[in-house]
Give the backbone structure.
Amino acid sequence: MRSFGEKFLRFLLPSQCHCCEKFLEEDRQGICPDCLSKIRWIEPPFCTLCGVPFASGEIKNHPCGACMTREKYFTMARALGYYEGPLREAIHRWKYEEKSCLTSFFGEKLAEGFHRYWDSRSFDLLIPVPLHLKRLRERGFNQALLLVKELSRRTRIPYSKRLLQKRIPTTPQVNLSGGEREKRVRGSFHVQRDEEIKGKSILLVDDVYTTGATVNECSKVLLMAEAERVDVLTLAHAIKSP
Ligand SMILES: [Zn+2]
Ligand SMILES: [Zn+2]
């Protein structure tokens, strides 16, 4: 947590770009025009299931190899941008350095992305990918819940922050393969009050889609609680650039 003095000082100082630290002339929601123009947003063609973008040679959207071989419990996952460059930097700072002014920037982008693929009638409920209580105490907030609140405000779809919970902490999974990640997260989420999930169309929200193991496991437990369908929206997709 920042001290009050530090917060006050920041209030007096001109704002800086959270990616390159250049001073901003006007309020650009924390990202300068240069950095903004360098963010690569995901465009078709991409995998119809997990949303991973394909190299430019492909023409149509179709399921990717990974989705053909590993079962996906969500109906479709979509991400806004590539997890690289300024977007990666901005997400990182937002999460670890409490750059809360980025929350509304991400919220706005998320709502734009949402309306590209769905509309407000598509879902009954927004659910953030939960953090384990221990991690939540360390960080002080769940970044996925911040996104869900922003999206809920803009789409008027209600959200729930407690129906899906993480009961077993998992260690950071940065260097693990998809299969390993799947094993690690298995059984780590659970639904409280199945009756509130039953028959609902749910959009799961998180900051980054990496191998999809986490959102897939969340989708699985939501379907076990008889959700009608589960889709996924993230800020970024961590794939190697084509
Ligand atoms: Zn910048
Ligand atoms: Zn796929």
Notes: The CA atoms of residues 94 and 100 lie 6 Å apart.
